[in-house]
Amino acid sequence: MINNKGGTKLNATLLILVVFLAIILAVAVVRAADKKKNEGSTAQTTTAPPQTIQTEVTSSRKEEIVSTPEKTESEAKPEYEIKVNKAYISQDYQKNTVLVVEYEWTNNSDKATSFTFAFQDNVYQNGIECSSSVFGCDDIDSEKQLTKIQPGTTFTLNVGYKLNESDADAEIIISDLYGRKELLKTIVDL
């Protein structure tokens, strides 16, 4: 009988290499297709200057949100529209301070998609990203981030971010899925 231990290791290594290369190829194809789709688009959108709006507060401190005003009907509609309805402070089950942001977004694309696959959402305090891994907070339902909505539908959801500091302003930045185009920039004064 022949001992084939060395051949088995080689086969496993080759399999891992082939899977890795297939993933890289798939990502390259998706990016190329997305780039071609964006180049073919004739509609260009511009971002209006931010304005300050007041929001509902659940603590004794006032919170302000700086938000981009809604676009007029004469402008071409972007693939997705998003705005912040309100932001407030809550806690998770470990008593960590959590910023809960209520987003309202509209799918103007030609296919059903979810918040997670439409946007890249980040919150920063003093230039440091806040974690969006929040567990045990009654004010958020993480599954809603994966809920697909059909074209033309508007959906509201709450997303939580674990704050690094309880009193430093939080900057919310929403961009397209690949981070190439900033769609919303909001500052919450804590």
Note down, in words, how this protein is organized.
With 190 residues, the protein is α+β, with helices and mostly antiparallel strands. The protein folds into two domains: 1-38; 51-188, Immunoglobulin-like (Sandwich), CATH 2.60.40.1240. The chain has two helices and nine strands, in the order αββββαβββββ. The protein has helices at 5-40, 115-118; strands at residues 51-54, 64-67, 80-91, 97-107, 119-125, 128-129, 154-162, 170-176, 182-188. The strands form three sheets. The chain has a four-stranded antiparallel β-sheet. Strands 3-4-7 form a three-stranded antiparallel β-sheet, with no helix packed on it. It has a two-stranded antiparallel sheet with strand order 1-2. The longest helix has 36 residues, at 5-40. The N and C termini lie far apart (73 Å).
CATH topology of the largest domain: Immunoglobulin-like
Class of the largest domain, according to the CATH hierarchy? Mainly Beta
Poorly predicted runs are 40-66
Order of helices and strands: HEEEEHEEEEE
Which descriptor suits the 3D outline? Answer: globular
Structural class, by secondary structure, is alpha+beta
How confident is the prediction overall: mean pLDDT? 78
CATH hierarchy: architecture of the largest domain: Sandwich
Our count of helices gives 2
N- to C-terminal separation? 73 Å
What fraction of the residues are assigned to beta strands by DSSP? 25-35%
The domain count comes to 2
Give the strand order, joined by hyphens, for the main sheet.
6-5-8-9
- Could you tell me the number of beta strands? 9
Cα gyration radius (Å) = 21 Å
